[in-house]
Amino acid sequence: MDAARLTRIPVFASLEPDALARLAAFAGEESFAVGAALIREGDFSTELYAIEEGTADILQAGKKLGEVGPGDIVGEIGVLAKTLRSADVVVTSPMLAIKVSHWEIRRLSSDVRERLTELVDARQAAD
Fold first, then answer.
1. Fewer CB within 10 Å of terminal CB in the chain, N or C?
2. Model pTM?
3. Pair 23, 99: CB distance under 8 Å
4. CB 40 within 8 A of CB 81
């Protein structure tokens, strides 16, 4: 993956070039059609997704909690907290996402992991 693509995601935008290159070497790309479940509530948390294109609804026990779109990260709560998925993420417009596994997250700098943790804390405080 081209490291420059990662800079479109705010949490990765300020990474040093070597950290971007390292992450780009391991990150993958996935496409999802409308209606696809990007994440399923109750599943094991093994990766997070950074949305490049498209939108999705966040649902918990069938109730809509919010929406996500380009630049947003989903799946980080379960990965960082090492818990099961806390919600469904269902695609509402064709999506292109960058997939980062828990193994790659371990390789990220402490600064990036801290920013991801801040995202988790903010989402949990909003609930």
1. C
2. 0.85
3. no
4. no
Could you give the domains of the chain?
3-126 (2.60.120.10)
Write the pLDDT tens digit of every residue in 5-56: 989 888 888 778 888 888 888 899 999 999 999 999 999 999 999 999 999 9
DSSP string, the chain: --HHHHTTSHHHHT--HHHHHHHHHH-EEEEE-TT-EEE-TTS---EEEEEEEEEEEEEETTEEEEEE-TT-EESHHHHHHT----SEEEEEEEEEEEEEEHHHHHHS-HHHHHHHHHHHHHHHHH-
- End-to-end C-alpha distance for the chain, whole angstroms: 34
Q: Are strands 47-60 and 88-101 parallel, antiparallel or unpaired?
A: antiparallel
Smallest CA-to-CA distance from 105 within 2, 42, 22 is with 22
Spacing of C-alpha 54 from chain mean position: 13
